[in-house]
């Protein structure tokens, strides 16, 4: 009778140890460490054991096997081989069911883990030299194969879409959208995003530099302009607005423009074009088709917009003007302050109304 009771107890102990191992693995170790650093006392306690990684799994796995084996031997001695095995499996199954299917099981498991972690941490610290040797030998003799379940970029995009609906998601939706665009922008072609020639704001090489031209270029909202000679299809240079402003020159556009022209084909991918921008250090390319006809232009901003998934606001185009940068920052801070003030007023208004009624 003693062996029977002891066998049942040891079977329960085996399941308890197995449950502890599952509890330590219920959260990725890096997330547990992050929560511990943020002041979560439970995560900090559990991380004392979880930090040992594979050594923890080896220790608990070995303990589970040992106690389950002893329980099986004792029950077989009392009940015979068949009934002993059946009773052992039944006890193990019932315990596993109770620990894993109850709605409050995670709370129970965490309570159990908090109670057991000091002892487990002490054992790990004491046995670490031996456990580290075992882990090293096991890792040397087996080929670890961890499959992410991802095969193509579309799988990563689908994963990011699921992340948006995750209850404890801490990645902003705008960052997820940016990641999705960054994954897929390279598949698009220059012809999909270029500025067509009919919409390009170009400047004649013979045009005189003066207040009228400066005002016209500033109001266009662009900072780089193709320069043509007689025919708009005959591009001979690029005019940079900041060069025009800084030099304060008179004369014609031809005197100030850059003569360096770079061409890309409309069938180039945006990834290829981005690499070309980085290599050439240019900011505007002329786009041609298969007949070497000019069909438009593409700028580095056009590609960046495809990566981040939203238009670039040109409030910092005057990056060499400290006042412009300071004014833009002040506007942002003022807007944020007004938003916070409005939220506080909306939050307090129901209480004020209730006090007036009372």
Give the rounded overall mean pLDDT: 78
The count of strands amounts to 7
Give the strand order, joined by hyphens, for the main sheet.
Answer: 1-7-6-5
Structural class label: alpha/beta
Structure description:
By secondary structure, the chain is α/β, with parallel strands linked by helices. Helix content is 65%, strand content 9%. The protein has 15 helices and 7 strands. Helix 13 links the parallel strand 5 (263-265) and strand 6. The strands form 2 sheets. The protein has a 4-stranded mixed β-sheet with strand order 1-7-6-5. The termini are far apart. The radius of gyration is 34 Å and the shape is elongated.
Task: Set out the fold topology.
Blueprint: H1 2-24, H2 29-37, H3 41-50, H4 54-79, H5 81-101, H6 105-141, H7 153-164, H8 173-184, H9 190-193, E1 195-196, E2 203-204, H10 211-220, E3 224-229, E4 231-240, H11 241-247, H12 253-256, E5 263-265, H13 270-280, E6 284-288, E7 294-299, H14 300-308, H15 322-357
Parallel strand pairs: 2-3, 5-6
Antiparallel strand pairs: 1-7, 3-4, 6-7
Helix pairs in contact: 1-4, 1-5, 1-6, 2-3, 3-6, 4-5, 4-6, 5-6, 7-8
List keywords for this structure.
alpha/beta, elongated, CBS-domain, 3-stranded mixed sheet, 2 domains, 358 residues, 4-stranded mixed sheet
Summary of the model, kept short:
It contains 15 helices and 7 strands. It has 358 residues and is of the alpha/beta class.
